[in-house]
Structure formats: C-alpha cells, structure tokens
Amino acid sequence: MKQELLAHLLVEYASPVPIYEQIKRRIKQAIAQGALRPGEELPSIRELALLLHVNPNTVARAFRDLSWEGVADGRAGKGFWVNEQKPDVSQNIPLFREEFLRLMEKAVNMGIPRETLREVVNEFFREES
C-alpha cells in the first residue's frame, strides 16, 4: 500500500464518528487529493482491517457504502477499486466544510487569533490568483 494512501486512512478511535464512517471519509479525501486514482485498487478488507486494528466487518461496511455511493466498485471476496467515473465535486463540499471548520476550531483552541486565521486564508487566495 502506498505510504501516501496510508497517511489518509488512519482513524481516530476516540472520535464520536463511527470508524466505518471515518474510513469512508478518508478514502473520499484520498481520491479528492489524488492519492487514489480512478481504477486504482483499494486495499483488501482484511489488509485494511489488520492495518487499522478494526473488525473486518467495519471495513466491509465502509466499502459497501462507498460502492452504494458510486465512489468505488467491487464486491467482498473480489476486491474494490476507485470508480472510473469522476465523482461529483459538489459531494465533496460538505466533507470539506466539516474538515475546514474542525481545523479552524483546532487552531482557535491552540490560541491562534481568528484575525490571523483570516489573514492566512486571504493569503492563500492571493497566492492562487
């Protein structure tokens, strides 16, 4: 498994978000960031379960949900891979918003003033234009 992908798939065991949901989100993030490309095979259910120290049924549920959502194709016992169809970017907006707000909350909790955060975000957009 690529090291870049491994970094995306780590889960937070103490999080109130169910682990299968975290796995789904992490895989979607990996796809959005290009760590997983269309047609690329996902780790096997057993391999990922061992790596994350979770029950294989947890990984299977995440993969099954990804399949239902059209993000991945495949079946248990046969393997799963990233769907060839380019996902609808609008589906990424709620996920991005949640991650962004979580990061901003973390920054505020670290004592970074909100005005500094605004400056960083504005700087990002100035660099992009």
Task: Give an overview in words.
The chain has 129 residues and is mainly alpha-helical. It folds into two domains: 80 residues, Winged helix-like DNA-binding domain superfamily/Winged helix DNA-binding domain (Arc Repressor Mutant, subunit A, Orthogonal Bundle), CATH 1.10.10.10; 40 residues, no CATH class. The chain is 58% helix and 6% strand. It is built from six helices and two strands; from the N terminus they run H-H-H-H-E-E-H-H. The chain has a two-stranded antiparallel ribbon with strand order 1-2. Strand 1 and strand 2 form a beta hairpin. Helix 3 crosses helix 4. The chain starts with a helix and ends with a helix. The mean pLDDT is 86.
Summarize the structure.
The protein is mainly α and 129 residues long.
Tags for this model:
single chain; about 130 residues; 6 helices; 2 strands; about 60% helix
Task: Classify the beta-strand content into a percent band.
Answer: 5-15%
- From the spread of the alpha carbons, the general shape counts as globular
Give, in spatial order, the strands making up the sheet with the most strands: 1-2
Provide the number of structural domains: 2
Chain-averaged pLDDT: 86
Contiguous runs where pLDDT drops below 50 for at least 5 residues? none
What distance lies between the first and last C-alpha atoms, to the nearest angstrom? Answer: 36 Å
Q: Determine the CATH superfamily of the largest domain.
A: Winged helix-like DNA-binding domain superfamily/Winged helix DNA-binding domain
- Portion in helices: 55-70%
Count, helices: 6
Which CATH architecture of the largest domain?
A: Orthogonal Bundle
Question: What structural class is derived from the secondary structure elements?
Answer: mainly alpha
Radius of gyration: 17 Å
Helix-strand topology string: HHHHEEHH
Count every beta strand, where a strand is a DSSP E run of 2 or more residues: 2
Question: For the record, what CATH class of the largest domain applies?
Answer: Mainly Alpha
The CATH topology of the largest domain: Arc Repressor Mutant, subunit A
User: What composes the largest sheet?
Assistant: 2 strands, antiparallel
